[in-house]
Each structure stands twice: as structure tokens, then as C-alpha cells.
Amino acid sequence: MGHLTRACALTRAAVARGHAVDVLTNSPFAPGLPLESLLGPGATVHRVDARLDKVATVAAVTAWLKDATPDVLVVDTFPRGLGGELVGLLPAVRAPRVLVHRDLNPVYVERFDVARAVDAFDLLVVPGEDAPFAHHPRAVRTAPWLLLDADALLSREDARRRLGLEVTESRPVVAVLGCGRPEEVVDARDTAARLRGTLGARAEVRWLVPTAADGAGSPEALAVWPALAVLPGVDVLVGSGGYNTVQEARATGTPLVAWARPRLYDRQALRLTDAERVADAVALEARVASLLGGTTRKRPASYVNGVHVAVEAIERIALSA
């Protein structure tokens, strides 16, 4: 979901500037999301079946890239591709090549000689957090990327209505995000249930999933995507330390309580602050209760979305080609 969200953020900004963008994704969330309507008429989304094995996925990417004639090729996070396929394919790509470069596990960087793979790119865009090659001579740093600009978010009143609250309801809202691996979505459901039990009448608790299918038809699931749109109506956000969850919470001033989920390449524990990170369910419930009992924070009226600077940097590369 993180890779898809970053790709959509970049696409949305590029389409708004008049560009046509093709998005290639094998995210398991992509089939159920209304990506085209959010991204605009200049975007075409190519959904690779997430159930394909590595060989079939590499074949799909290879076939698409051989048929595509992009003015610019943008790759998110992995300079070698999903399965190392870009090492052999990039030399044949005549268009400028751009890498969205964020933090990676140093074990992966060393094992697969990522430094050499990075050198195949004409531009590295570093989206708001440190990365192994952030000081590369072709790197450009930006503020964090967000799927929506501040003026596209719902008002607090409209967000609370979207979350199913009556106009007369004044209790705070705790939103639990279920958008990671399948077992993590289930864990989010269980966490929401425990919070309802411990908080009682002190708060309204919502379990948010990207689509109804992700909630497996559970009446407790509330399908909301993008979740960023409703954060003005959320008083405490519970999730993981993924890039988008963390950056969206910070940009909107939404208090975040999060686990550092284990990932092969992403290091969520480094992204989270001590105030955001919890180690277990008991600590999570205590932190949420503490935040609800604290002083109400003033939310920022706006935020800087680094995706616009990223698009401008990519435009410069395209024009100089």
C-alpha cells in the first residue's frame, strides 16, 4: 500500500500539471480502489496480479516495459526492480530514469550492490526522510509526499460524518488503520475491539480499511480511502510505522500511536519517535487513553506537500534529455 500511495501522490500532482502518467503496480489493494477517479483523466493504471509468483511478476514487468515508450521512467524504492529485473532492462530504456529513494535496510543495500543499481538513474528524489544515497550528486530532497494537499481534506465536521458520527456526537474519535498485511488487518480489527472495551463511552472507535473487501464483509469495518481525507476528524490515529501513515499523521497534527511492524526492507522503528511507538497491546491502550485525556492539540491549517517539488525536478530532467 505504501508504494502504491507514493506512486499515486506523484501521479496526481503530475496529472494536475497536464502530464499523462501510466502507473504499474502489483499492490494487492489496487484492484479494489477507485484509483482512476482519484488520479484524474490523465492517468492509466496497469494492475499486475499480486498473486503471481516472482517469475511471472518479472515477466509481466518486462513485457510492459518493452512495450512502453515513456518520456520518463520513475521507479519507487527498489532500483533493481521487484525481482532484480531492472538491472537488465534499464540499459535499453532511452528515457531519463528517476528513482524515488527512501530508507532501505542496509543488509539489502550491501547484499544486492544497490549502490551500483542507483547509478543507473539520472535523478534520485528523496521524499522527506533520510536514505542511504541521499547525498548522491544526482539526489534532490523534498518534503514528505502526501496523496492529498491540505485543501483536499474534509472539514472536521464532514470527516466525522464520513466516519459515521451523528452531528450531535461530541466524543473524540480513535481510528485504527487496517491496511498492511492480511494478518495486520485482522490485528487492527482486534485492536479496535479491545479499545472499544477499554475506552467505553469515552470515545468512538473506528476500524478503517481501504475497501469493504479488505474488511472481509465485517460490519465493524468502515471502508475509507484515502484515509488522509478524514484525518481532520480523527483525534487519535492507531496504525503502523509505515511511510504514509507516519507522514500523514504528522502533516495533519494527528496524534499517532503505532507499532513498528517487521519488514524486509523498511525500518519502521527508525521512522517512529518514542512518543509514537508502542511495543504491545497494553502499552497501546494506555497511550491512547493518555492522549484522549490530554490537552486538545491545535491542528495546522495547512502543510507542505513535497510531491510538487518532485514533479518539478522530474520535469527538468525530462526537458534536459
From TrEMBL:
Organism domain of life: Bacteria
Name listed for the protein in its UniProt record: Glycosyltransferase
